[in-house]
Every structure is written in C-alpha cells, then in structure tokens.
C-alpha cells in the first residue's frame, strides 16, 4: 500500500466551508419539501395517492444508491464525485422548481436522490482524508456533525418561510446557489490525496443486489405506513429485501473487489456507530413529523412560526457539537459523549410526551427541544468522526456511505413505524372516548395528541437503546488510543489516522 501523505493540506479549512455547505444542502432537503408539499400538491393537482411519492421518490433513490455512490467516490476520487454530485443536484433542483405536472416533479425528486447519493458519502470521506490530526479532526467533524444534526431543522424553517412568503418552488430553487458556491469552492481549494483512491473494478452484482435490497427495504416501510404491516405487498417487500441483502452479503464475501468490504462493517466502533445512528434516526425523524403536525394543526402555528419554533433546538445542536463534542473528543472516550448525549435527547423527548391541547411552548416544548438539541449535537460529533475510524483510505467513501445509509433507512423506518403507532393509538383513544364526548372536534384533537405522545414514548425507548449500543460497542479513545485495531487486521499506521492512535 502506498505511503500516505503526512503533511497537512494548507487549504483544508477553506475546503471545510464548501464541504459543510454541500452537507447542509443535502440534509435540509430531506425536510424542506415537507412543509411545502400541501402547496405543491394544490398547484400541480397531485392526487392524495401520489402525494407520498414526492417524499418517497427521493428516499428510494437516495437510500438505495448510497453504497454505490460511496464506491464511485472511492473509484473516481472524492473531489470529482463531490463536484459531479453538486452539479447534478442543482440541475435536478432546477427541474423540480420548474415542474409543471406530477411526473416532472417526481422525476426531479428521484434525480435529487441519485445525485445526493453520490454527493453525501463524497463529502464525509473528503473530511476523513483531509483532516487526520486528532484535535483538528475533532474541530472539523464538530462543524460537520452540527450541520448534519441541525440541517433538518433548518429545512423546516426555510420551508416555512418560502411557502408562506414566496412560493413552494423556492424550496427547490434554493439549492442552486448552495450547489454553485460549493462546487466552485471545491474546484479551487480541495486537493485530494491521490493514493486514497480504489482503482479496483466495480462490483456489478453487488451494486444490483445492494440497490434492489435497500430500495425494497425503504419502500417496504413506506407501504407499511399506508397499507399496514400485514398487507401482502408490505410482507413481500420485506421478504425480498431480506433475500436480496442476504445474498449481497454472501457475494461480498467471495468477490475480489466487493462493493462493501465486510471489514468496514465488522469493526466494532464503526458497527456501533452505524447501529446507534440508525436507531437515533428512527426516533428523530418521526418526532420532527409529529411536532410539525402538533404545532400547525393542534396549536394553529403558521408554517413560519412552526419553523422558528425549532430554532432553539438547532442552536443547541450547534453548541453541543462545536463546544462540547469538539472540546471533549480528544479527552473523553467517544462512548461517554455518544451515550449520555443520546440519553439527554431522550430525556428531552420525555418532556414532549406531556403535550396537551393547551401546552405552553415556553415551559414544555422549548426545554424539551433544547435538551434534544444539546444531546444530539454532543452525540453526533464523535459519531460522524468514528464512522471512518481505522478504515483504509481506499474504503473511506463506502464507509462514509454507510453513515448516510443507516440514517436514511432509520428515517424511513421511523416515519413508518412511529406513524403507525400514533395512528393506532389515536383511533383507539377516539373510539374509547366517543360515547362521553360533548365536542367531537376537541375529541379529535385530544385523540391526535394522545397518538403523538404514545409514539414519542416509543421514540424515547429507541433512543435509549441507541445510547446503550454506543456505550457497549464503541470503545475508541480519541485522546489516548483505540482499544481495537481495524477489523481487517491493519494497524493504525496502515489506516487513515482517524484518531490519535
């Protein structure tokens, strides 16, 4: 293996600005369209049956192609994949903003997912190869982790502003200046170490099996939300996903140049990070959706006011990531940042289970959101850094893709699972209280709030499990070395010096 370049790139901090900008664009796009969806549906005449596809088309393409995108990043080089992803994402966004019918909008969303799947792993793996010194890496991933955690909330705010004061189309057009600035900056300042590329031939069977398996899995949870968990289509999709992904793992054990080298998964630190982030995404994605519905439908908040209600959470996420995570990462084992961080976020969720028809935002919702933001920011920062812990430079792209895959699949699971739980609890509450109700509208709102609270309790449990996984599996110590070498037997000197081994 070629000897890695040891001198630091003098333009790495400028590069971080453009990498972070691209990451913000990808993350906020996951939520910015949600608030604009009712307006887009009315404008384009999208049927209720097709409405979900505005979200699902993006999720299927993005989640299904992430591993492929990560491998392309390793093959082409991260800078080329990064710039290509940005340009393609901007073009797809322009197409979505100019959509004149349902098919055009859905096609644009799918294209956004395709280029997002190329862009997201390239961004994270660029950080892995540009920042190798422990303290600098902590600062860089602190910024990246804050953006990854807060981007969804930023999307809710921008979606509300654009929908209320401009037009739903601006939720697409806003990506264009982001992409142009990030691409121009990347071309001028990013210099990627050439020895980090993986010139092996592309694993075509692996690409087909992984893509079809992940698409089946994500779509299965989407259909479970609309058709129910016991429907033939839902069960068939889950069965297909299990078979396809099982065969994929068998293929990856035998091919010479696998799409996903199993050494990436079997390292306990990386595996622990992927599982804990996936569980956290299950809890967080569902919660954002419930709170948005609660504030707008039950409390009557406008789209803008709803978006601004999430602003304190974003501020606390940034604080947790850049001030707590960054300062402590080189001094405290990562598990003692991730575990307590997720538990603090779970405690914030417990507060949010107390919501009612007239709950005060200032005394219940606000402190709950702030605790969640601080906890998630503190946990996300070391998690993002450890995602490429001890990985070979040639595998940095696919290891980074696994972070996004775990979050994307987790988000799909969370939206479907928690929505199903909430809907069932809402229906049961309404039926059991219908006989004695004097005001059916009030009962409807009470039933909705009961459903939200029930689902949030499930989210509390899932996030607590995420904390447990982090404490049990993650044993890297950024300040004093790692308790384990990488899974394929490399020493720290052979791998990217992700931590100060």
Quick structural gist:
The chain crosses the membrane at residues 15-37, 52-69, 81-104, 110-131, 143-162, 168-190, 202-222, 228-251, 272-295, 307-324, 336-355, 361-384, 455-476. With 501 residues, this protein is an all-alpha fold.
List the main descriptive attributes of the protein structure presented here.
disordered C terminus, cell membrane, disordered N terminus, 18 helices, two-stranded antiparallel ribbon, MFS, transport, mainly alpha, 501 residues
Structure description:
The protein has 501 residues and is mainly alpha-helical. It has 18 helices and 2 strands. It has helices at 12-44, 48-51, 53-76, 78-97, 102-130, 134-165, 170-173, 175-189, 204-227, 232-254, 262-266, 268-298, 303-309, 311-328, 335-352, 361-386, 396-433, 440-473, and strands spanning 476-477, 481-482. It has a two-stranded antiparallel ribbon with strand order 1-2. Strand 1 (476-477) and strand 2 form a beta hairpin. The longest helix is centred in the last third of the chain and has 38 residues, at 396-433. The model is unreliable at 1-6 and 479-501 (pLDDT under 50). The chain crosses the membrane at residues 15-37, 52-69, 81-104, 110-131, 143-162, 168-190, 202-222, 228-251, 272-295, 307-324, 336-355, 361-384, 455-476. Its main location: membrane. It comes from Streptomyces hesseae. InterPro entries: EmrB-like, MFS, MFS_dom, MFS_trans_sf, Sugar_transporter_CS.
């Amino acid at each position: 293996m070629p000897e890695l370049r040891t001198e630091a790139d003098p333009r790495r901090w400028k590069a971080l600005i453009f990498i972070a900008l691209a990451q913000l664009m990808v993350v906020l796009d996951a939520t910015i369209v949600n608030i604009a969806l009712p307006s887009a549906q009315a404008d384009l005449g999208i049927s209720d049956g097709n409405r979900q596809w505005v979200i699902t088309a993006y999720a299927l393409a993005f989640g299904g192609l992430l591993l492929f995108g990560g491998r392309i990043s390793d093959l082409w080089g991260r800078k080329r994949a990064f710039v290509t992803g940005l340009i393609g994402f901007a073009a797809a966004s322009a197409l979505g903003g100019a959509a004149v019918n349902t098919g055009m909008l859905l096609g644009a969303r799918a294209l956004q997912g395709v280029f997002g799947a190329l862009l997201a792993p390239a961004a994270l793996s660029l950080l892995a190869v540009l920042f190798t010194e422990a303290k600098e890496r902590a600062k860089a991933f602190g910024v990246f982790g804050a953006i990854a955690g807060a981007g969804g909330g930023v999307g809710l705010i921008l979606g509300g502003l654009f929908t209320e004061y401009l037009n739903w189309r601006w939720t697409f057009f806003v990506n264009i200046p982001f992409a142009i600035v990030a691409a121009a900056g990347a071309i001028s300042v990013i210099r990627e170490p050439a020895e980090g590329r993986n010139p092996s031939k592309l694993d075509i069977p692996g690409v087909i099996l992984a893509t079809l398996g992940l698409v089946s899995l994500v779509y299965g949870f989407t259909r479970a939300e609309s058709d129910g968990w016991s429907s033939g289509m839902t069960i068939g999709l889950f069965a297909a996903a299990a078979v396809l992904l099982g065969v994929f793992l068998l293929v990856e054990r035998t091919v010479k140049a696998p799409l996903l080298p199993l050494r990436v998964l079997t390292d306990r630190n990386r595996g622990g990070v992927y599982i804990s982030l996936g569980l956290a995404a299950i809890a967080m994605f569902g919660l954002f959706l419930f709170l948005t519905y609660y504030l707008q439908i039950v409390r009557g908040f406008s789209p803008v006011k709803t978006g601004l209600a999430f602003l304190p959470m974003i501020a606390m996420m940034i604080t947790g990531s850049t001030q707590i995570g960054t300062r402590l990462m080189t001094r405290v084992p990562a598990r003692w940042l991730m575990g307590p961080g997720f538990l603090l976020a779970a405690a914030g969720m417990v507060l949010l289970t107390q919501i009612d028809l007239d709950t005060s935002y200032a005394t219940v919702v606000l402190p709950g959101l702030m605790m969640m933001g601080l906890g998630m920011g503190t946990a996300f920062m070391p998690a993002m850094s450890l995602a490429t812990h001890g990985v070979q430079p040639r595998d940095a792209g696919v290891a980074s893709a696994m972070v996004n895959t775990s979050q994307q699949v987790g988000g799909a699971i969370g939206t479907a699972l928690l929505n199903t739980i909430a809907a069932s609890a809402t229906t049961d509450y309404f039926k059991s209280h219908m006989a004695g109700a004097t005001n059916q509208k009030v009962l409807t709102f009470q039933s909705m709030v009961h459903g939200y609270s029930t689902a949030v309790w499930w989210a509390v449990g899932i996030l607590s499990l995420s904390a447990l996984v982090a404490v049990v599996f993650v044993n890297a110590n950024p300040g004093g070395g790692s308790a384990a070498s990488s899974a394929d037997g490399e020493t720290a000197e052979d791998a990217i010096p992700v931590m100060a081994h």
